[in-house]
């Protein structure tokens, strides 16, 4: 479904954000890109969604390299952003936000669009009455549901989730994670999950790519990488997740 | 706290209504000369008295509201449209295009609006159109600068990126999302600009470079009333000046109130 | 038991008409670390701010906050200043907002020390010592650097060093590692822990992460909608949590269930203190709620090794 080969991104000023990264997501699969700030994971996501252009390397979506047409690309890849408070237009109601996307991507007529918008709200577990609400009337979790519904509206094959649950409260995070599991089962969409949180990875993803300073450190099935990490960095990452009986240590020091 | 904006809003509304309904409201023909009745004091027939040519002052004031309001209105509409278009395109495309537009606006900004308008009027002739056009041009950078800063801030918000990921065109995003979100700020800027434009246009008329007699225009009335002041009849200048000041203050107060109201919304 | 260093006596805070804290009763003893855990809007930050009287304008306070026996909200300006500068230190979430961006790290640290009457040379020597203690390398060079030259993790260590400089009896840490990467978080938390023990300072540690708080603290207080709903020893968190909210929080972490299984969720959204029912603050979202939960407010009573505000004896 998604095949990224030897991706490299150099920003103005010579900063190398991504250096020779390759990974792939099968149709309906779920891959996590894990890393800390500066690892280049978000840059990868932005290149996949077309928000950023790679310096070199190829991105194959559905086997095709050139997705110059933005509308076509958007019908294949969609994205959910980290900040639920700012990723929605504050002057647009939930329903109009969904209908706008449907009008852009589908040939549905007005009643069909309205009906589809209602189905999308059901899919993400939002009361249909909230369709008339403006974003400011919604909680963080509800806004993130709207963002997911909007991303699913064009019927994409791949959903890029950029720290999509990081800004949410723990109990809300759980709701959204469950929703993501359900939505994948219901629609067959594949996930590219960008996160720093390993426990989230274990829950939602099948495969994982661990990144550090722009390069891939380790990759493989989640189960294997998290239980028998081969790279020192992965071990450190796993070791620093707070858990029962965890004792923080400052052994890991860096300049 | 709420009294000021309500009062200001009422004044604005009244002035606008008066301007629209001038022909029906004015008790006399504003240009009907009657030398036998010059400098008549306030009376039941002439509520504000008459001027040096015996014209009814109230009627002239009421008719004057029309040109005195349409001038600034055209200025803010024109400058608002051009200014926000430049601002949004500059913020949207960024890079050298933004630089070009910003520098051009800076150059334009360096000319004081009033001086520019006076120069243009002196060069291309007096009347209504020339000063209004010149002032519109002078107001473009004032509005464009504020709008560009706001557009840049707005453009950096994640929802704009979300729309780009949705595959919407730049046109669609700018017109349907960026502009509506900037609209409150534009309204505030226009309302503030309106007051300034009104004073500037009155000044131009006062200097004799705008509308020419016998037009009923507040700025012109202030100027024409000057000799009468020396003759001991200040009514004309005073009445017109009060009209200008009250209207400008009302519009500015309303703009300030709107700015505060939308302030939270824009951040 | 001795007199606690810090004591909240049914503290209630209102902002205008809106209740922010409904009833906070909690003791922090000398040298003890207490974790205040809750979701957004639970009032944990307000609780900490009330200790140094930095509540937002228009806040009205009922109940008492006692520090070393003295009522904080009855202190004179001089007493308050003394307490803030000598006895209580604060570490916030964003170190960049805490440190003056145009002054050097050295200036920032020595300012605190000079305020205590140290000479310039002595203050610099002490500052260098403090930085070394919190695990900052190349100390001499760091003292001359400015905040933008340091990473978030390093800068947070500088803030901790500054907090320790006054030899405080109490450290207030408001989500000190939330803005940091996990590996950096581990180091910063380890340093905070180690320094606290070495100086036997008390710690009030705010976090939204139960596991993190449990690793750093001796006791955990769980807050919800402006109330403390449960207090228990950190080591007994998993075995003895009674309150349905605490347990829901523990189970909603994605690491707690095998992959593929559903996470236990709490329906609804976290409530703020001004929208809670007459009875238990959690009744609207509680899966076990009964009639009396909605009408009678449960008191925080001792149960097992801790205390919980719940009518129900829900089996663990």
**Overall shape of chain B:** elongated
Q: Greatest contact pair?
A: A-C, 42 and 43 residues
Individual helix count of chain B: 11
Tell me the overall shape of chain A: globular
Named CATH architecture of chain B? Orthogonal Bundle
Biggest sheet of chain B, open or closed, and with what strands and sense? none
Largest sheet of chain A: 6 strands, mixed
Determine the structural class of chain B based on helices, strands and strand pairing. Answer: mainly alpha
Commentary on this structure:
- The complex is a heterotrimer of chains A (255), B (267) and C (316).
- With 255 residues, chain A is an alpha/beta fold.
- Chain A has a single domain (2-250), classed as Rossmann fold (3-Layer(aba) Sandwich).
- Chain A has helices at residues 41-48, 70-76, 94-105, 110-123, 140-152, 170-187, 198-204, 222-227, 232-239, and strands spanning 2-10, 16-25, 30-34, 56-61, 77-80, 158-162, 190-195, 207-212, 215-221.
- The N and C termini of chain A lie far apart (40 Å).
- The longest helix of chain B is centred in the first third of the chain and has 37 residues, at 57-93.
- Chain B has a single domain (3-28, 47-262), classed as MetI-like fold.
- In chain C, helix 4 crosses helix 5 (120-133), helix 5 (120-133) packs across helix 7 and helix 7 (152-165) packs parallel to helix 8.
- Chain C has a single domain (6-102, 146-308), classed as Rossmann fold.
- Chain C is of the alpha/beta class.
- In chain C, a hairpin with a 2-residue loop joins strand 9 and strand 10.
- Helix content of chain C is 34%, strand content 22%.
- Chains in contact: A-B, A-C.
- Chains A and C meet through helix 5, helix 6, helix 7 and helix 9 of A and helix 8 and helix 9 of C.
Keywords:
heterotrimer, A: Rossmann fold, six-stranded mixed sheet, three-stranded antiparallel sheet, B: 267 residues, MetI-like fold, 11 helices, 0% strand, elongated
């Amino acid at each position: 479904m998604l095949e990224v080969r030897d991706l490299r991104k150099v920003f103005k000023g010579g900063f190398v954000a991504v250096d020779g990264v390759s990974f792939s997501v099968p149709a309906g699969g779920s891959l996590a890109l894990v890393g800390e700030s500066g690892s280049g994971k978000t840059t990868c996501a932005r290149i996949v969604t077309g928000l950023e252009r790679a310096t070199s390397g190829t991105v194959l979506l559905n086997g095709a390299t050139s997705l110059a047409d933005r509308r076509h690309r958007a019908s294949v890849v969609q994205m959910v952003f980290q900040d639920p408070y700012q990723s929605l237009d504050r002057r647009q109601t939930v329903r109009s936000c969904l209908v706008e996307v449907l009008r852009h991507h589908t040939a549905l007529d007005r009643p069909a669009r309205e009906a589809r918008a209602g189905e999308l709200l059901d899919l993400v577990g939002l009361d249909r009455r909230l369709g008339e609400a403006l974003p400011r009337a919604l909680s963080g979790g509800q806004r993130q549901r709207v963002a997911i519904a909007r991303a699913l509206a064009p019927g994409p094959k791949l959903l890029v989730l950029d720290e999509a649950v990081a800004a949410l409260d723990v109990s809300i995070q759980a709701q959204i994670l469950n929703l993501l599991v359900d939505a994948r089962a219901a629609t067959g969409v594949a996930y590219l999950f960008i996160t720093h949180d390993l426990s989230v990875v274990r829950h939602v993803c099948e495969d994982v790519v661990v990144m550090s300073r722009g390069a891939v450190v380790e990759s493989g099935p989640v189960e294997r990488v998290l239980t028998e990490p081969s790279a020192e960095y992965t071990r450190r990452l796993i070791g620093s997740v707070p858990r029962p009986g965890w004792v923080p240590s400052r052994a890991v020091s860096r300049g | 706290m709420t009294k000021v904006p309500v009062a200001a809003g009422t004044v604005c509304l009244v002035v606008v209504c008066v301007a629209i309904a001038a022909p029906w409201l004015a008790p006399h023909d504003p240009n009907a000369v009657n030398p036998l009745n010059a400098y008549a004091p306030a009376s039941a027939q002439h509520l504000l008295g008459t001027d040096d040519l015996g014209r009814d002052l109230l009627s002239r004031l009421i008719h004057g509201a029309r040109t005195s309001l349409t001038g600034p209105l055209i200025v803010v509409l024109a400058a608002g449209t051009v200014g926000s278009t430049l601002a949004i395109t500059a913020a949207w495309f960024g890079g050298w295009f933004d630089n070009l537009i910003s520098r051009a606006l800076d150059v334009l900004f360096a000319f004081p609006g009033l001086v520019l308008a006076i120069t243009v009027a002196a060069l291309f002739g007096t009347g209504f159109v020339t000063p209004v056009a010149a002032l519109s041009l002078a107001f473009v950078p004032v509005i464009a600068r504020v709008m560009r800063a706001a557009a840049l801030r707005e453009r950096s918000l994640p929802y704009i990126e979300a729309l780009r990921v949705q595959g919407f065109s730049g046109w669609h995003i700018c017109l349907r999302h960026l502009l509506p979100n900037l609209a409150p700020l534009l309204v505030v800027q226009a309302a503030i600009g309106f007051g300034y434009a009104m004073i500037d246009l009155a000044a131009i008329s006062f200097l004799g470079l705008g509308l020419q007699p016998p037009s009923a225009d507040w700025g012109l009335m202030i100027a024409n009333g000057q000799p009468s002041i020396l003759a001991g009849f200040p009514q004309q200048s005073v009445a017109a000046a009060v009209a200008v000041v009250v209207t400008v203050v009302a519009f500015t107060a309303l703009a300030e109130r709107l700015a505060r109201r939308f302030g939270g919304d824009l951040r | 038991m001795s007199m606690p260093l810090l004591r909240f006596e049914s503290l209630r805070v209102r902002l205008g008409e809106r209740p922010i804290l409904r009833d906070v009763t909690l003791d922090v003893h000398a040298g003890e670390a207490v974790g205040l855990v809750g979701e957004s809007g639970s009032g944990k930050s307000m609780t900490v701010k009330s200790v140094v009287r930095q509540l937002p304008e228009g806040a009205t306070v009922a109940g008492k906050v006692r520090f070393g026996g003295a009522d904080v909200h009855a202190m004179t300006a001089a007493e308050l200043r003394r307490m803030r500068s000598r006895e209580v230190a604060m570490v916030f979430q964003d170190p960049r907002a805490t440190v003056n961006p145009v002054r050097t790290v050295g200036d920032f640290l020595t300012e605190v020390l000079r305020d205590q009457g140290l000479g310039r040379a002595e203050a610099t020597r002490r500052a260098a010592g403090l930085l070394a203690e919190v695990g900052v390398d190349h100390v001499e060079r760091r003292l001359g650097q400015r905040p933008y030259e340091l990473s978030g993790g390093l800068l947070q260590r500088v803030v901790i060093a500054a907090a320790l400089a006054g030899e405080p009896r109490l450290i207030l840490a408001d989500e000190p590692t939330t803005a940091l990467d996990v590996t950096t978080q581990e180091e910063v938390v380890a340093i905070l822990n180690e320094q606290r023990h070495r100086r036997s300072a008390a710690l009030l540690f705010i976090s939204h992460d139960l596991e993190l708080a449990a690793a750093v603290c001796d006791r955990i207080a769980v807050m919800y909608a402006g109330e403390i709903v449960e207090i228990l020893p950190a080591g007994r968190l998993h075995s003895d949590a009674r309150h349905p909210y605490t347990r829901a929080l523990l189970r909603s972490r994605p690491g707690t269930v095998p992959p593929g299984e559903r996470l236990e969720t709490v329906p609804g959204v976290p409530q703020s203190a001004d929208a809670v029912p007459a009875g238990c603050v959690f009744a609207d979202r509680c899966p076990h709620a009964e009639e009396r939960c909605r009408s009678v407010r449960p008191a925080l009573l001792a149960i097992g090794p801790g205390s919980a505000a719940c009518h129900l004896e829900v089996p663990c």
